[in-house]
Amino acid sequence: MTTLPKCPKCNSEFTYEDGTMFVCPECAHEWPKEATESTDDQRVVCDANGNELKSGDTVVVIKDLKVKGSSLVVKVGTKVKNIRLVEGDHDIDCKIDGIGAMQLKSEFVKKA
User: Fold this and answer.
1) What is the per-residue pLDDT across 41-84, written as a single tens digit (0 to 9) for each?
2) 22 φ, ψ (degrees, to nearest 5)
3) Cβ-count burial of 72 within 10 angstroms (0-12 exposed, 13-18 middle, 19+ buried)?
4) pTM
5) How far apart are CA 52 and CA 45, in angstroms?
6) Which residues form the Protein YjdM C-terminal domain (predicted)?
7) DSSP 32-78
């Protein structure tokens, strides 16, 4: 029995084959079989300007960001030190002074 890859979008283990594609029944994501064979496990995360980010980098917020469930706002120009890259939609895990631990999307930051 062959083992099928997990869904790259939601990490579901219930993927199945459909012709030349893999399909995830949970999030309906489809991807070609060739893409899973030729890609390596290393994911590249880029900032708003296209610069590659790595864990431990310092970034600057380029847009006012409302903190969900709070009246706080992360202002433009806020410097965030020692980021950590994680999987998911919000791919930066960090701690911001005055706000605390939170996750950011890489499209709203630039490398400092």
Assistant:
1) 567 899 999 999 999 999 999 999 999 999 999 999 999 999 99
2) -100, 145
3) middle
4) 0.62
5) 6
6) 46-112
7) EHHHHHH--SPPPEE-TTSPEE-TT--EEE-S-EEPTTSS-EE-TT-
In this prediction, residue 35 carries a pLDDT of 59
Q: Phi then psi for 56, rounded to 5 degrees?
A: 100, -10
- H/E stretch holding 95: strand 92-96
Structural domains in the chain? 1-38 (2.20.25.10), 58-111 (2.30.30.40)
Rounded to 5 degrees, φ, ψ at 109 are: -135, 160
Contact indicator for 21, 11 with CB cutoff of 8 Å: no
> Exposure pattern of 36-47 as b/e (b: 16+ CB <10 Å)?
eeeeeeeeebeb
What is the reported pLDDT for 41?
54
**Mean pLDDT of the chain, nearest integer:** 88
Residue 22's nearest CA partner among 41, 4, 2, 49 is: 4
C-alpha 54, offset from chain centre: 12
